[in-house]
Write a structure and sequence with these properties.
By secondary structure, the protein is of the alpha/beta class. The protein has helices at about 5-25, 65-80, 130-150, 185-204; strands at about 30-35, 40-50, 50-55, 85-90, 105, 110-115, 115-120, 160, 170-180. A hairpin with a 5-residue loop joins strand 1 and strand 2. Helix 1 runs parallel beside helix 4 and helix 3 crosses helix 4 (about 185-204). The chain is globular. It starts with 6 loop residues before the first helix and ends with a helix.
C-alpha cells in the first residue's frame, strides 16, 4: 500500500531541504527548532561572497487561505524589514482522481519531482502588484539556473494575470514542487537542488 503523506509533512520537508541547500551553497550552516504548536521554524544565517543571507522555513496551517500567508509574511516583514526573498511553496495537483500525473526528472541517476515557478503580473495596476516585472525577472533567472544545473528539472514557467502573495517584495514567488503523486524523497531531492539554484542566483 502506498504511504499517504500529508501536505504539511510534504512541504515542511521540501522547505527545509530548500533552505538547507541554499545555505550550504552559500557556505553556511543551519539550525532548526520546532515550536510546541508543531509549527516548524528553522533559521540560518551566513555571510558568503559579501552577502548576508538568512533563511526561514515556516510551514503553517490554514492551507489555501491567502490571509493566513499574508499575515505571516507581514509579521516577518515587520520584524525583518530587510527580507529580500519570499517563496510560497506548494504541491501541485495534475490530472484526475482516476489518472493522476507525476512529473519527474532524473539527475545523477536519482529521480526528483519537477518544479513549476509561477510569476504573476499587474499590467493595469488593479492588484497593487507594482513589482511584478522584477519578480518575473527573478523567476526567469531561477528557471534558467535550475535548467542549466539540472536539465529537465522545471516545467514551463506559469506567467499570467494573478498576484497571490507575490506583491510583498520584488523577490517573491510561488513555486510548485511536484504533485500529490510524487514521493517525499523525490520532492525533498528537488528541494535541495532548488535551494542550490536560488543561492546561485542570489550570489551571482
Amino acid at each position: 500500500m502506498k504511504n499517504s503523506i500529508s501536505r504539511r509533512s510534504f512541504l515542511k520537508a521540501v522547505g527545509a531541504l530548500s533552505a538547507a541547500g541554499a545555505l550550504a551553497a552559500c557556505g553556511g550552516s543551519s539550525s532548526s527548532s520546532t515550536a510546541a504548536s508543531s509549527t516548524a521554524a528553522s533559521a540560518a544565517a551566513s555571510t558568503a561572497a559579501g552577502a548576508n543571507i538568512k533563511l526561514w522555513t515556516y510551514p503553517i496551517g490554514g492551507w489555501g487561505k491567502d490571509e493566513t500567508v499574508q499575515e505571516l509574511i507581514s509579521s516577518f516583514n515587520a520584524k525583518y524589514p530587510d527580507i529580500k526573498v519570499v517563496i510560497d511553496l506548494h504541491r501541485d495537483a495534475i490530472g484526475t482522481d482516476e489518472n493522476k500525473v507525476k512529473p519527474v526528472f532524473t539527475y545523477n541517476g536519482k529521480k526528483g519531482a519537477q518544479i513549476m515557478i509561477l510569476a504573476g503580473c499587474d499590467t493595469d495596476g488593479e492588484r497593487g502588484f507594482d513589482c511584478w516585472e522584477e519578480n518575473l525577472n527573478f523567476a526567469l533567472k531561477i528557471q534558467d539556473k535550475a535548467e542549466t544545473l539540472y536539465p529537465d528539472m522545471t516545467r514551463p514557467l506559469n506567467f499570467d494575470y494573478f498576484a497571490y502573495n507575490e506583491y510583498v517584495c520584488n523577490g517573491s514567488l510561488l513555486i510548485e514542487v511536484g504533485t500529490e503523486s510524487n514521493s517525499i524523497d523525490e520532492a525533498t531531492y528537488s528541494g535541495s537542488l532548488l535551494g542550490n539554484a536560488i543561492a546561485d542566483v542570489l550570489l551571482n
